[in-house]
Write a structure and sequence with these properties.
mainly alpha, 94 residues, Arc Repressor Mutant, subunit A
Amino acid sequence: MPEREQVLAALAGLSPKSREIVLLLAWDGLDTSQAAQVLGTSQAAVKMRLSRARRQLARELDDQQDPTADGPQRAPDPTTTHLGFTTPDLRSAR
């Protein structure tokens, strides 16, 4: 699939709020201050929404690249937190 079509498909997969913030900044060329005025919210809220939208967009694009993304998922390592830090295995200490 051509890159343009991949990006459009990924944008279509975003939530409406995520798509809105991406389009305001990337398509309309607004900065975060201008987007905050348009949305009637704070600049900090716009930055947070943009951060979430970028992560969601990256996941959408990754899912397009990985044909097994919808397939079975490997169980997470119980000694690794969601942030990637390793925790001690307290079960073996007993």
